[in-house]
Amino acid sequence: MNNLHRWVRRHGIPGVSLFCLVGFVMGGCGVAQSRHDAVVAGMKSVRADLENSRMMREALERDNEQLRADNEEAARELEVMGTEIQRIKEDRERECADGVVLEKVSQARLRALQGLHRAYRKLQNENRAMQETVGRYQKELREARVSSPVTVSPSHHGASSAESMMEANIAPESSPATTAINGVTKLVDLNTASMRDFVVVLGLSEPMAQQVIAHRPYRLRGELLARQVLPPATFDVIKDRITAASR
Question: Where are the domains of the chain?
Fold first, then answer.
């Protein structure tokens, strides 16, 4: 029997033929019909199993192709999502930077506004002090008039010029040094000084000097403000170098 198997393998005889050959050897040349049918049925079953295996393999290959396509699509979507996440991150960083810049600009504007407010308060205080000074001189003038009435008759043209200079708030030009006699500063008398004294010594312009002369006499130097002969800025410059003592 072993020799028969070796002979079959050497000559390449198939399994079915081997079965027939064995049957022929064991039982002669005839094979029972039932055994033949069983062999045919077994071959059909094997062929069906092979066909099912082939179909399953093709289905698995199709599933693999679909999975590969799904993986590629998922990879593309992940790449798009990564790009979108990076863009959102950059936008947030830019918004944060813009917020910092906006905050700095707001702080700078707030400081500028605070500076303007302080300057406004300072101007208010200066204006209040000037009004108090004018009120004080007007009060002194009223008291002086009550104690000793003074007739004042300024010309219409002179009053108009004084009012225009008051509105313009014109300060006198840079004045030369006040005249000194024997080292003592000489005060300019509003009631007796000449045009030259007002222009050269005090540094007033000629129209201002004419206004001062036109409104004589003066009992107090503050009458220059009370009568609006000179603007406050001009009076503050010359007030320590004038007097009305001769009246």
Answer: 2-64, 152-243
